[in-house]
């Protein structure tokens, strides 16, 4: 515990005023932004940083720092103002002055990676609080492995009414309560205002009772009474349950005429009200200039953080676990992983097992887990369907944070956001499973994985009409296309047991890109019976079967449809047509290959694409003289074989399409 | 109130047993499906139908019937068994026997439109309960307009643990409590089992306290004590709050060896256990044969429903409002709508206002609302940004169900599912707004709009980097492509005030297809200054500006980028290059035009596509000799003008791309 107990309340009041003034001035200069939240929560934030939060601006990523998540991301000026005053080197006053301008770090919403001290990208409401669950969980899991000396920090969240109205907040609250994440403390900006007006327009939930129902420690305070806020944070830290502190605040507090109204939520105050606020706060300083006392007060917070960091470094230096700890935070050991996967692939090619790629994923996970012992995974209540649990993994529970397998419950969105939090916290390689169709349920969090470049892995099974009887609500048709449209995510749909192993090598070794695997429910033959140490899946697409003596046609397929393309090539061969088959497990990785390679794989012959999904996203794989065999509607409920026949995704159809092109 | 009070409890027990036996036998025959839920909830369902629920199988869509929603859709055999025994003409025993087989109505999950008496498609968890909120809301809104004589029914929901763990359930519960939807009654199958095992693996929320926190009436009963269930439903009906009845059940009740285990959730019981269950239930009848007493008991329920329907018809016949009531339920009056829009368009073309298309939508809504007085709309707390409220609309509140405008709160997913429920209930033309990027938050419900073919309208504004400073978390880049990938939904991105009016004519007049509008934040010039009565937007794409003397190039753009294409055509003309400009507001409607029209619009000259989004989805609009000017990464935070320049989406870039093709 490294907490400030001797408080100069005058200085703390100045710290809060400085947040208010910088926020209103920056929003005014940008003529865009949200002054209401930073002004309303300035007192709470001043207390939190001044007395509790431990961060070191000179080493922003020190592993045992407290995490601060601004879930109400529209109030971004709060964190920019604070980080400027704390002395983060990349947040000088020029940044604040150019809030929301091109080329500056002070983006409209806080963006991870754009500036130090931003722990996660927020803005889409409810993501911050749920990502924080993942951080707080990672803290406990890391602590279980390395002890209090190396891992002992808090996760603080500022959330607004919007965060708590979003559905994902239910998943967050239930998870945190169930996992008993006592070091997660949520400061709710209870200002009773949303964009449309009073919260009474749209909600009458008793949030305090709601959090209590999920096992949280709950308190309520006047958010402008700094001593009361401090006491509540102290009590929250002492309780072993996650804590909600409902901070009753006035939005835009400090602005004498506009505070308390939704008009101060997302618009500049205007020159007149800004002058009146300066008057009311007794703040004589010009815009973007701060008095020395303010920098001194915030500097003291930074100094406390620095000494905490130095004390931690001394403990780290003396720890027998320092090496293992460092390794857990480093990039995955792709050398060890690659060697293990190569040996495993050799065995697979020799034995050629026919298994569903979801089963192949389970088999590969055993290899990955051996090579990367900091692997933690889970499923949104589909463990036996996604096959995401290796034999050695123990369930992670509130009584055993040392467990490696997380039962996320029926909470796809919460799982995805929590995975982002685990990845942001560091210490683990992480993945989670559900059905591919439910990518829709967690899409906002997948998007943040991609936007932040987090190496999390989505293990999404039952990836087409091939799942059969569950019918169109469960059959992805548009999902591959919709996910391939997203920047910076690798969508990998392996065709067999070997490609699945290669997919796991890509996913588990990634550093700046999430991976989403689309895996079959149904069994698929091993097509890669000749061992190659090369990871062919990493090339995105490759020639699985060449047409001897030159191609008449090239058949290109992914996943479960590669088997169909191979059969079609056989049919064509019977009729004297020479067809090559290209397996294309990852369009994104193929697009990243050089043009010569791509041209050689795709060839100059007519092309037929085959995928049990809509054609959109296939354009780069096909050309002018091409055809596509796939879906153009939702699916149906019937056994898989009947569906493939009904929708015309068969070797015969592929062969016919090929012949019609020649 | 048309409720059964004289109960033959022996017959009711038989009714429940019959549900159990049909469910286990059908799942066994299919070798696929979920027997646990129908067997566990058989007693509750028997009581609900036998004593309370009012439906008439001879007129399944009678408007004042009670609505029954099986939110736990995997238990589909429950509703198929019941509807068979009630005598729905399309649900004979052959259907039950061929559960989950190709060509039968008994799909894996209940599908709206596949069989009578299925009020909504369920399966994706949490959708049913939230759709039911929309139904219950529509009932109250319809009642406010037509009175108790014509509209006076209940909405009953069976929900499982999965439904209540999904985030969307929070949005549902908060909305229903806030709107005080007292005629919504949720029967929670509290069996403490999920797919992975005990609910204790993943949740410790006190659901009863949670619902109470959102203003619900809450009771708990033994779900196998039929008298207790009946009393609870009576109390729920009497209370003016929405009601949760926690029904403690044993999953798979009736199966002597497997009941109570997650193994009975989603797998057949097996021949041996089926025999044991027959024994335990004293059920001597063969599979798919039922004794007369069972049909008699269920037939009595149907007869009670029929007489309720006949009594309603008598009231309807005598009602002065019968005509207006019928009109509210009929397809929208596209004649009146078309005339109003035509006159409005003439005015617009003459005045040529430069407005953002979100503003144009607000203007068009005034016209639509005049023509279709049963229009009800709303926004997920972005009313002033989406501009979704017409001047005359009053807020819908628990004290004024006669209002037309719904403050949905910060609940995009809940809004979309509730809109599905409003559309399914009937009586209203409905729409709802949020930012386009938050389509991700409600995608599972949008998918159900499309799958069910519901004519709801999504008014999604701030549709590109043109929103500016809010940055990449708020800037859609992949969303147009990801939505265009979905079957059966029209994605309309109008270019100006006239196309926006046309988009509203399409959306408000639709019957079997949802519409999603992508609207700009930024102002756009009126491009359609020459009036046409033809709805050119309904053609999907059309030549906005022809190149005199033959085209050198065709520029194709949507929405805010059509202005850029027009400027590019000017630039090209200066250099002597003849460019046509095609405005393409809706790819789906364009694909539905005949080939001659499409060929004429696209022409044979090289083509340049322009859209501030990723290229995916553009393939059908472009050809071999083409280029695309758009986005290939996430956006950034800066003023809109700076972003368009930074990402190279400018008239100059379009002109350069055109020249490089020629």
TrEMBL record, chains A, B:
Homodimer. It catalyses: D-sedoheptulose 7-phosphate + D-glyceraldehyde 3-phosphate = aldehydo-D-ribose 5-phosphate + D-xylulose 5-phosphate. The keyword Transcription does not apply. Its EC number is 2.2.1.1. It is an enzyme of class 2 (transferase). Pfam families: Transket_pyr (PF02779), Transketolase_C_1 (PF22613), Transketolase_N (PF00456). Binds 1 Mg(2+) ion per subunit. Can also utilize other divalent metal cations, such as Ca(2+), Mn(2+) and Co(2+). Keywords: Calcium, Magnesium, Metal-binding, Thiamine pyrophosphate, Transferase. Residues 355-526 form the Transketolase-like pyrimidine-binding domain. Belongs to the transketolase family. This is Transketolase. The keyword Magnesium applies. Its cofactor is Mg(2+); Ca(2+); Mn(2+); Co(2+). Catalyzes the transfer of a two-carbon ketol group from a ketose donor to an aldose acceptor, via a covalent intermediate with the cofactor thiamine pyrophosphate. InterPro entries: THDP-binding, Transketo_C/PFOR_II, Transketolase-like_C_2, Transketolase-like_Pyr-bd, Transketolase_bac-like, Transketolase_BS, Transketolase_CS, Transketolase_fam.
